[in-house]
Amino acid sequence: MMNLKDELNEVTAHNPDYTDNNIYLVLSAHDYRSPRKANIHFITSELAKRGRTRFFSLRYSHLSKYTADPRLSLDYAANQIGVYQGVECYLWKTSIHPFNTRRRWLRPLETLMYNWYSNGYNHVLRKWIEEATVILLESGVAPVFFDLIKAINPNAKILYRASDALETINVADYVNKTFSRIASELNTIALPSKALAESIPSKHNLAYIPHGIDHSVAQQAGPSPYGSGIHAVSVGSMLFDPDFFVHAAKRFPHVTFHIIGSGQASHPDYGDNVKIYGEMPFNKTLSYIKHADLGIAPYSSEKMPAYLRDTSMKLIQYDFFQIPAVCPFYIAADYPNRFGYEIGNGDSIEQAIRRALNPAKPLVGKRVLSWEEVTERMLQPQLFRDTEMSA
After folding, report:
1. pTM of the prediction?
2. Angle 226-227-231 (CA atoms, 0-180°, nearest 5)?
């Protein structure tokens, strides 16, 4: 195992020719080393090509083992600096972490927990804030450190990536109030969907910057993992609806349905044509998506935010590979490559799949930004007309 000095040497070796002199710091409840990738991981990878980049992982504690936190596999690395793919990483593990109690009468306790947490009693966090020139806060708990950042490093440029609306991810009242107070002081609030603007209490610093995709994934995807026949794939666990596959598998016995990383065991009513896979490295999922005949986004609720139409990573990937996507009507909206159905309605699901397998018009791939283009727009939105909210 490398010591810290060797690991820090790896930072320079991995990125010998930085394009700028910035030191970037990302604050997020994800961890850069996690196998499951979100948009913040890809943005961080791009930052690491530009300058020294650090990823500080928040809201992790002994309580996390009761919430099936995806970072539990990294528990061994908690509270120590590590380096992964040229990025310095730190998973801050505390005895407890603040959370939304969902009880109004417990709000004073919530406030006490968040007040303590936002003081950032961690020497690595404080050192990294002090040394950063650009700090990226991801939606969630990260905004509560705004005051600490301003106290330690008032000249740092502070960006906010609104991966989700705070109401949607059910943050505590303390986080909502903090964000409302500081929103107008952030240098840029990057919105991956214009529908998110209504949830932001500031307008002058908004920039429309959709999620991207690594365009090289088309080459990274290996040969087809499928045999003969028709294959449909579902990737991810968000609001996963197993009943979709109960209906679909019975009505399409000649189609094989591949469910990857749903976080759920096989349903007793699944047929033999439903295949279950556990968590899978991102690069491995690419072959399953690229070579599928159908992409499925089986969301379980109509009570979903409108911005999910634009921000669903699986739907972006399906669109990039130009495979038809089957999803609830609300999410299908007016996207030409999506085929909607009514949740829980077997006949509607059958009709959507039939339409998707035999589309009336040729599928048209939507232009998707690369992560490099996304990151450029976040750092300097004023240089790009397509970041304007009125565009």
Report:
1. 0.85
2. 55
